Amino acid sequence: MGRVRDVVDFYDRHPISEAQVLAALARRGRARAPLTADDLFAFDQDHYGGLAAVDTLARLAGVGASTRVLDLCAGLGGPARFLASRRSCQVVALELNAGRAAGTARLTAMVGLQHRVRVVRGDATRLPFRGGRFDACLSQEALLHIDDKGAVLREARRVLTPGGRLAFTDWVARPALGDGERRRLREWMAATTLQTLDAYRALLGAAGFGAVGVEDLADEWRAVLRARLEMFRAMREDTVARLGEARYAEYDQLYAFFVGLVEAGKLGGGRFSATAM
Ligand SMILES: C[S@@+](CC[C@H](N)C(=O)[O-])C[C@H]1O[C@@H](n2cnc3c(N)ncnc32)[C@H](O)[C@@H]1O
Fold first, then answer.
1. How much is the pLDDT for 2?
2. How far is CA 88 from each of CA 46, 67, 159, 165, 253, rounded to the nearest angstrom?
3. Closest residue CA from atom 16 of ligand 1
4. What confidence tier does 1 reach under pLDDT thresholds 50, 70, 90?
5. How many whole angstroms from 204 Cα to the centroid of ligand 1?
């Protein structure tokens, strides 16, 4: 439970938030205009690689208009709205953090997608859905926060129909990652039990998935993360105005530490796809 509290706190204090999205829209003079999902995409994707990364997962999971999609750990709902608007599918966006879940529902209604994206507050290790309810399950940069990754994968398998597809990306540990660095990632970013690519492959098999695909994203993420850090720093004035100097400095320090680990080859990313057997 301590870990769950840590994750909730981390995202309650996170600079990327509904308020930040609304402030960015206001700066562009779009606060009151009729809005579409596209107006939010520059601000509502809390993962690496932007819309192209969501699109790749959707392709791997075979998402089309009739696919019933579950977005696990949906954040502010950016990927769910992208899928609903581009692929015309129904998406359930599951999110643990109450503020983020409520923000997702409000942002989704603001762009008129509430009939395609349903927000459910819940824990990915105990999904509040019956078995076989979904055809595809996606997730981005979130399992890193969950102790029992096997439990999430077993739950994803349970709620997928046989033949359904899972596709997700996550941080992966590389051999040089030290215990002290793991500890700091846990304390600073609520990141826990980071897996290697091979360990994830084994967990997927044990959870009842076959046809497992694994891609190493370490090289791709190095450039993406450096650019994200620069973008965060470019928004310094706005972040300080909203959250104060101390919060800006705190996130700058932890984010730079994280990006440094990726650039040093101690931490990487993986893209995984698999079929529910
Ligand atoms: C880095 S954000 C990614 C958000 C979203 N996937 C995106 O790409 O924009 C990670 C999200 O996972 C959520 N999360 C962490 N642990 C969770 C859990 N056990 N169940 C559901 N959501 C969880 C966090 O609250 C946070 O919103």
1. 57
2. 21, 9, 21, 18, 40
3. 145
4. very low
5. 20
Strand order, beta sheet including 267-276: 117-121, 90-95, 68-72, 134-140, 160-173, 267-276, 209-216
Q: What mean pLDDT comes out for the span 148-161? A: 98
Ligand 1 atom closest to Cα of residue 97: 25
Per-residue pLDDT, 110:
96
Residue 45 Cβ contacting ligand 1 at under 6 Å: yes
Distance 152 CA to ligand 1 centre (A): 12
Taking a C-beta distance cutoff of 8 angstroms, is the pair 97, 202 a contact? no
Q: Is 145 in the pocket of ligand 1 (CB under 6 A)?
A: yes
**Residue from 6, 43, 95 to probe ligand 1 pocket by mutation (most atoms less than 8 Å from CB):** 95
pLDDT digits (tens, 9 = 90+) for 93-145: 999 999 999 999 999 999 999 999 999 999 999 999 999 999 999 999 999 99
Q: Diameter of the chain by CA atoms?
A: 51
Q: Which atom of ligand 1 is nearest to the CA of 44?
A: 9
- How is residue 42 written in tokens? 């520059």
Domain residue ranges of the chain, discontinuous segments joined by +: 2-276
Out of 21, 69, 73, 137, give the residue to mutate to test ligand 1, the one with the largest number of ligand atoms within 8 Å of its CB.
Answer: 73
Q: What is the pLDDT of residues 157-199, one digit of tens each?
A: 999 999 999 999 999 999 999 999 999 999 999 999 999 999 9
What fold is seen in the domain 2-276? Rossmann fold (3.40.50)
**Contact yes or no for 97/76 (Cβ under 8 A):** no
